[in-house]
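Worked Example 4.2. Consider the chain below.
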Amino acid sequence: MVKVTKDVALQNRDSLLQAAGQKMRAEGVQAATVAAIAGQVGLTHGAIYRQFASKDALASAAITADFDKILAVLDRIDSAGGTLGDYFRAYLAPDHRDYFVWGCPVAPLAAEMGRAAAPVQAAFAAGLHRNLDAIARLSRIADPAEAQSYAMLALATLSGAMAMARATQGCDPRTSDAILAAALEGLLADPRLPTNPPA
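Applying the procedure from the previous section yields the following structure tokens:
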């Protein structure tokens, strides 16, 4: 038997979580089967279940990994001296609407979480809190309570607009584009952001 190195095992796990996250964002947690995810990465059911005790455990880990990627985007913007405006523009871009490669898990999964198993809900809630904290920090709003309140509004606007834009993209692309543009305009104009002071 060929021994798999630790680095290869980690790469395989990352590939599996990426495939699971993409499948769940595209089809939903319930609809994304372990068989389909396994086939996407060339693994057997057994190989997956040796790493994760259940589909719920796989889904929870994939959701956590998806939030990790979003947090990494926010961290890169912060480290480069960027603003929330940079994040808003990336989030509400047509390519984020059209593809699920790095996509935020909030827009495609939030409506389903109320019906998900408790561990999956917990993973989503933990990721959501981390996401909100990162947005609050990047907002540069001095008051912590106000920053958190702003982050909730911002993420609700972002994810809601993205869900609506995806829902109308196929049948009414003009409205889909308009939703993204209107959400971006509203977020960038918010006077609470230090980068957007009142006129």
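The CA atoms of residues 54 and 87 lie 34 Å apart. The mean pLDDT is 90. Compare this with Example 4.1 before moving on.
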